Amino acid sequence: MLPFLLLSPLALAAETPAPARSVQLGAPASALTEHLWSSADARVDLLLPPDFPVSTDLSTTGQGPQVETRLRLGLAYERPRWSVGLEGDAFEFIAAGDPWDLDVPHANDRQTAGDLSTAFDLRRAALQARLGPILVDAGLMTSHWGLGLVANDGDHDPAFGKTEYGDRVMRLRGTTAPFGKGEVPLYLTLAGDAVVDDDTATWTDGQRAYQGVAAVLYRKPKGPEAGVYGVLRRQTETLDHDRTTQVGLLDLYTSLPFTLGPGTLRLAGEAAAMKGETTRSRTYNSLAGLNLAAASAVTDLSYRVDDERYGLRLRGGWASGDGDPDDDTSHDFTMDRDYDVGMVLFDQLMDGLEAGAYLQLTDPTYAGAPPDGVDTLVNEGAARRLSYAQPILEARPIPLLRMQAGMVFAWSSGPVGQPFATYRNGGATANAFGAPTEGYQLGSELDWGLILGGEPIERGPLDLRPSVQLQGGHLVPSANLVSGSEIERLSLYRLTARLQW
User: What is the pTM of this model?
Assistant: First the structure.
């Protein structure tokens, strides 16, 4: 059996620290007193997801209408030379409805409804202090870098869909500005992390990941940004100490604004490359483990008029794929699970197909023991080994209404195949339904959204921002993914009521 390595790039960050009230959720936190700040994001979603087959035995996701909830609360106390911040998520779960029928390990518990046991997460409990020229952060915190390609705090609204996770670390970080607060806003950072939860390690599952980070960032408020950081990471599986991963990663990020006519043109991009080795997965030709060598790059080009009546975005990206899964090196690159590429292709269809493959690979009627690395197969809908283009149109016809529509065109950067069906097909690539595949097309998707509200309402000490959002995603998958099944198209609808301050 060919193990299928889906080792995500690492959840790292060395962003310039902000004051503790950076617990803000999309807007400045509200001042309760002179030194006390609060923020909140309450969300209720009515979700109408697609039900579709996921494997050759025609097992289906079995999902139907669902009600999802989340309450994110933040509190910060700030003094001139130190501050402390708390933030956490409560009631983040499927409150009611019809979840997955697929019994697989999944970070957002798609297979359960009404289960409060995993619906609470502490996101921040950290102290920040200024020690001479150095700003020190210590404690539990989220991490975010650049466009969120490899480190994503789950607190940046995506173009479509919603964020669900966020990378969390226990961190000790020191940042200094060697040129002061003058004309060269350059920041240097050193940090050490123990990972609490990210795409590839969860502390409560016995996965221990430690990493060191060094970074340089140039950033002007509302101006150009450019940064680079490097990281070394070592991860072990404490239930099996022979499973280790050691990786180095280098990430480059830039965001450049230009005034153009009545609006602003912003050119943003991020690129990352990783190299290392792992014994988490193996192949028949490399029983000792695999080398890792992968890369990815994404862009986000946008133009918006100053009054935001209309705008245009062009997002795109590439993540390397493995053209030879039998050799001793994996080239598969997986983007952070909170980095969005549409609403349906990866978050629904690919996530379901990978869950179906996991169930087949772990079924004792097919093999006495599952292959090494099978637990990395279910990656919560993260985009991987692909290239894509996503043009988006935005408009605000009236002050309280925002509209947007976009397309996703996606191709695989490696052969398209499901590991179980490919193995049973003698090594010739086959999809989840046993049909042979050719070419690299994955599909095309139409996404749209209407957002009513979202502007502050002055009411006492809190700047309340209520909003209602309706979104839809419609996928026409390629024959590579669905030939042999009855799938023609998949649609997802989401109605969200939200209150922020």
Answer: 0.90
